[in-house]
Each structure stands twice: as C-alpha cells, then as structure tokens.
Design a protein that fits this description.
By secondary structure, the protein is an all-alpha fold. The chain has a domain at about 20-55 and about 70-120. Helices cover about 55% and strands about 0% of the residues. GO terms for molecular function: aminoacyl-tRNA ligase activity.
Length: about 120
C-alpha cells in the first residue's frame, strides 16, 4: 500500500484502510490503521474487537436463539457482526482463508496479532 498518500492520512472522511496481505513488515502499520478506522467509525466496535461480546456464539459466529436476547444483547450482536464485517474487509483472501474457522472479531484480531507480531 502507499503509506505516503496524503489523502488517506489527512482526510477524516476517508474510511477505507489498506488491505492487509500478510506481510509481517506491514502488520504494525495495518494494526494502527485498523484501530483508528474502528475508533473513527464507532468506538463501541473497537471495544468489541478488544473485549469480544458477552454472548454465547457458535463456531460460525452466530447466536443460536436470537429471540431470547434482550435489546442490549441484540445491539451487541449486531455490533459484533458490523465489527467482523469491517475487519474482514481489510484483509486479503489468503488471510481470510487462514481465519475461516474463527468465529468472533476478537478471535480474528488476536489470531492476526499472534501470527504477525511473533514473526516481525
């Protein structure tokens, strides 16, 4: 990616961050951009990335019985899927394939950190 692109860094309305393609040398920059992207979009979503959601989620990232959720839990569930979608939009197909068994946004993020912070 072109980290010298002034449009990307100076215009807060630009919400798209570079695609992470699995290059260890670029991970810390991607990680910082990812965090900033979540925070400028909705800080609650970043909280979900860091802390997860307090819901019983199956291996596919889904709640078995959504009808039994409280309104707050339904909002948490919706935000979990927003955060997961946002995260998946910023990684390459190859990275996605490595994480296909990962059900939560927190687990995806932690898996990437474990893999690329160790190897850099």
């Amino acid at each position: 990616w072109n980290s010298k692109d002034p449009e990307k860094f100076m215009n807060p309305s630009v919400n798209k961050i570079p695609l992470f393609i699995g290059e260890s040398s670029q991970f810390y920059l991607w990680k910082d951009e990812e965090k900033n992207h979540f925070l400028r979009t909705n800080e609650v979503l970043w909280d979900i990335v860091q802390n997860g959601v307090n819901l019983a989620i199956n291996s596919e990232g889904m709640v078995e019985d959504r009808k039994s959720l409280t309104e707050t839990q339904k909002q948490d569930y919706k935000n979990h899927h927003k955060a997961k979608y946002m995260m998946m939009q910023t990684i390459s197909q190859a990275e996605f394939n490595k994480l296909s068994e990962t059900s939560t946004t927190k687990a995806i993020y932690e898996s990437l950190c474990d893999l690329y912070e160790r190897s850099s």
